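Service request form, structural biology core

Requester: graduate student, group of Dr. S.
Request type: structure prediction, single chain
Budget code: on file
Notes: please return the result as structure tokens.

Sequence provided:
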Amino acid sequence: MTDAQETASDSSVRTTGATPPDDAGASVLGAPTPLLEPREGIPPVIADEEALAEVIAAFAAGSGPVAVDAERASGYRYGQRAYLVQLRREGAGSALIDPVACPDLSGLGEALAGVEWVLHAATQDLPCLREIGMVPTRLFDTELAGRLAGFPRVGLGAMVEGVLGFVLEKGHSAVDWSTRPLPEPWLRYAALDVELLVDLRDALEKELDRQGKLDWALQEFAAIAAAPPAEPRKEPWRRTSGMHKVRRRRQLAVVRELWETRDRIAQRRDVSPGKVLSDAAIVEAALSLPANVHALAALNGFGHRVGRRQLEQWQAAVDRARALPEAQLPQPGQPVTGPPPPRAWADKDPAAAARLAAARAGVSALAEQLGMPQENLVSPDTVRRVCWEPPAPVDAGTVADALAGHGARPWQVEQVTPVLVAALSGAGTGA
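Core staff response, request fulfilled:
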């Protein structure tokens, strides 16, 4: 788990001997129970093929869903690879696997084919699991289930406490998981992340069923499991923090050259790019266009801690950008493949802007009525695309087809179509 997944969780208190309540989905009365140890203690870290084979056999022989989690070293290492994989299944207990020592877990993935995998914020962990051969065919995402069920806080710690009545320790979420050997407190934390995940899944399934949303959730989970790997970003350098300050094409070229130089160095050294050079320093150099190493050294981020050789490599990147012919300079902004930014709609197409305003209001009201975030009811990008280029004629059939064409699931199409038909027909727009 990462900090991003746990922004809503609480600091922990530790104790021992806690087990899940029988009625895990019931409201928790009184103070939550702090949880210290996994039920069978901290499992040994699997770091060789023989031990891995035993784990694969044990989990293949287990029963019911399997809880899965992965720890990365974001902010420390290059990329998003997994440095620890945690699993738990009835009949097999818990397992901690070192994917550095055992980089091919496809045998484990195959042993769990057809089994429901329980993950929290699945889309964050699936890419790194895919890299080591673990790809689920069925899954249950407890974070997404919490969103659909209307929970205000959906971090794992908050969900376990609010639904099951236990406090998990979350103090090690941002540590460097590439560390070897991993300290015992970190391993305890990692094992506890999957300790109650299946119990949480069972309780959330009951709650979704009670609200009439279980089929909706299952459609969402199936879509996540079936989604292909994300395409590599085009021009990833444009995501440099602070890019909004950079306006001129020559300055954009400096950002590109520095970003790509930094990325090559970070990949070669296997460290986070931010540890090589900060985004703020890249933007500072782009805005200043330093003419030489002396001028570069005077900028924030290139001070006395940066050696002469490093300064020269950064200045060389700046010089390459300064020497580019005009035709090779990057264009401002990214290529637009969909509608323009909504702020420009009023000028470009006032009727479309009115449709979008009505659609947003309708979706917001429906999301509140259903007790879930608007973005889970329907993708904001889908709403924008349908409002910018509405189908003709506007009716329930054409709007439903348009939503489905943009990837909306059947339950979303059913719920949102009436709202968009009203918005596109002029209801509530003043037309």
